[in-house]
């Protein structure tokens, strides 16, 4: 079987400065500086967000400087102003090559071998807006097969954005580390240049703007002493089952990088000889995924926070959840809590703190 590895395949759809669209490998985010990549260009907004966060997670894992002023190896600012070549990036990424095999023998990217033979869900339920929907009364009956690239990013979005299902029952398909409905804060560089002309920021600039020095990440959440691969990428080791005989997963159990790679859902994708046109991102005849199995009670993340999401605290400075909005979206009165600490009025004092990356940018970067 041909292994589909996310560090080697061209599975990321992007738009370049000259309005040309293409599929690139992860390391090619800095390719062709004369016509740089400016943004992700997938068919779905949740996929765009998942791709951005995947690339931030990969860079944070493989390329983050030890501290902001690491002048010996790689100052953050040097790479921001002079992006590394795809070859340099690939040399960094390849250290974790085995964690990014989508198919083939286990371990597999964001999948759980023990889910094999579990409940087989309709394919559209891999989409974050698919669970709870009925394929008989919606567009979901058109989702008959998805390409490997679509399956990969749908799986990322599924793991990172999902909410609890079957809540209150004995068997629960666990929610994402940030518990669904949260806001993700991505810093975007200014469009102004040194000569006051205007240009779109490159994708590289946006991604690198959202990377923390490792010492900052280590002090934020998680246990830096848990330094094995399985403590960074949960699918590289056994699942910590959270049923009545298992237990939850706390920050002391895993490395800080788990914040970026959390996999609460136990999923097994089926790869066979099926070919056809992807129902979501048509790109000609190609191999398809048509089925997946699930099991409940996977990693159940408790007391975690996340560098890209605002946090709410009580008056004793204890985190009580991620900042969320309702169906009305983000309004003017929300913005203060996204850029600086704000305090609600009323009997119960609740403090909203911006995402770690926002706080760090204001105090520790470009100073």
Describe the secondary structure blueprint for this structure:
Layout: E1 12-16, E2 21-24, E3 37-40, H1 45-62, H2 76-81, H3 86-93, E4 119-121, E5 146-147, H4 148-161, H5 203-209, H6 214-218, H7 229-232, H8 258-261, E6 266-276, E7 286-295, E8 311-314, E9 319-322, H9 335-339, E10 342-343, E11 350-353, H10 356-364
Helix pairs in contact: 1-4
Question: What attributes does this structure have?
Answer:
4-stranded antiparallel sheet; 22% helix; 14% strand; 11 strands; 10 helices; alpha+beta
The total strand number stands at: 11
Backbone CA Rg: 21 Å
Give the strand content: 5-15%
String of helices and strands? EEEHHHEEHHHHHEEEEHEEH
| Helix residue percentage | 10-25%
Query: How many helices?
Result: 10
Mean pLDDT: 87
Spans of at least 5 consecutive residues with low confidence:
none
The main pleated sheet reads as: 4 strands, antiparallel
Shape: globular
Instruction: List the quaternary state of the chains.
Output: single chain
N- to C-terminal separation? 51 Å
Structural class: alpha+beta
Question: Would you write up a description of this structure?
Answer:
This protein is α+β, with helices and mostly antiparallel strands. The longest helix is centred in the first third of the chain and has 18 residues, at 45-62. It starts with 11 loop residues before the first strand and ends with a helix. The chain contains ten helices and eleven strands. The protein has helices at residues 45-62, 76-81, 86-93, 148-161, 203-209, 214-218, 229-232, 258-261, 335-339, 356-364, and strands spanning 12-16, 21-24, 37-40, 119-121, 146-147, 266-276, 286-295, 311-314, 319-322, 342-343, 350-353.
